[in-house]
Amino acid sequence: MKASIFLLLGALAACGFSSSPAKSDPTTPSMPVSETAAAAGSVYDYSVKTIDGKDVKLSQFKGKKLLIVNVASECGYTPQYKELEELNKKHGDRVTVLGFPANNFGGQEPGTNAQIATFCEKNYGVTFPMFAKISVKGDDTAPLYQFLADKARNGAVSDTPTWNFCKYLIDEQGRVVGFYKSDVKPMSPELVAAILK
Question: If you average pLDDT over residues 26-53, what whole number do you get?
Fold first, then answer.
């Protein structure tokens, strides 16, 4: 009798059955691929300071796309402020423009936060949210921009701003979905189509 039981257990083991708990295969992902992709970070994980020094959680912008732009007051692309404001007014129900002054490219944003705010309002009538001056590249890059330029963390792009007025498009869930260089104008068909998509 014992011999037949051992033979039966041996046959079951040979067929892949075991009385011990199943061990997970280390090559099998712990979650479906779609869930892994969705696990990429979000801009909603970050807090920033407004141009007048108030702390703001980016999660307050949930539900609309975001266009995050590194801006400067003395750049050849500075007139894009006009189109950014136009975009903000024309498609503000779909996208919120967020301006981040930065002095990383040729000293083209030398002013203080107060000077920048006055410049934007006086010259371009800017009403979209503006934030405190930060660094968008190099050793002192702000945490938000470290995230935006790291595909391993944002799941989409690995682009660092190459000049002023580079643009990151963020979807309604806070995920990075695109990067546009300085020469892509805010009201360009390419960018507007991506926003209205």
Answer: 66
